[in-house]
Amino acid sequence: MALWGEPEGGSYNNSQSYIQIRRDNNDLPSGEVIGTSTPKTISQNAAAGEFVYTFDTSVQLEASSSYWIVTFDGPSATTNGTRYYGNISDPYADGYWSIRPAYDIYFRFVQ
């Protein structure tokens, strides 16, 4: 899965993040994790761009279900976070788009 983002500034040389795909539970992400990506480490000086998150195992989605893409910083405690975008010129404050419910994050599925 590809997300548009950039490294957040901070005191470390890299940013690190990973994503989970979770089943919907009444318009909120459930605790049921469908898949977890491997952590993506991004150089502190990297430009904003599309970052591809990979999964060690195949993620199976059902057409009749809704899902959430949930982002996390880390898992390393010695890296900065990642900021995500709705489009190239529209960053979400602190990487969270739940405070802007009329907008979606930029993502696409890749193989």
Tag the structure with descriptive keywords.
111 residues; mainly beta; five-stranded antiparallel sheet; four-stranded antiparallel sheet; 9 strands
Task: Outline the structure in words.
The chain contains no helices and 9 strands. By secondary structure, the chain is mainly β. It has one domain (2-108).
Secondary-structure class: mainly beta
Radius of gyration, in Å, reads 14 Å
Number of helices: 0
The largest sheet is: 5 strands, antiparallel
The residue fraction in helices comes out at: under 10%
- What's the rounded overall pLDDT mean? 83
Which residue ranges are poorly predicted, with pLDDT under 50 across at least 5 consecutive positions? 93-99
Overall domain count: 1
Shape: elongated
Order of helices and strands: EEEEEEEEE
Percent strand equals over 45%
From the N-terminal CA to the C-terminal CA, the straight-line distance is 8 Å
Q: What is the strand tally?
A: 9
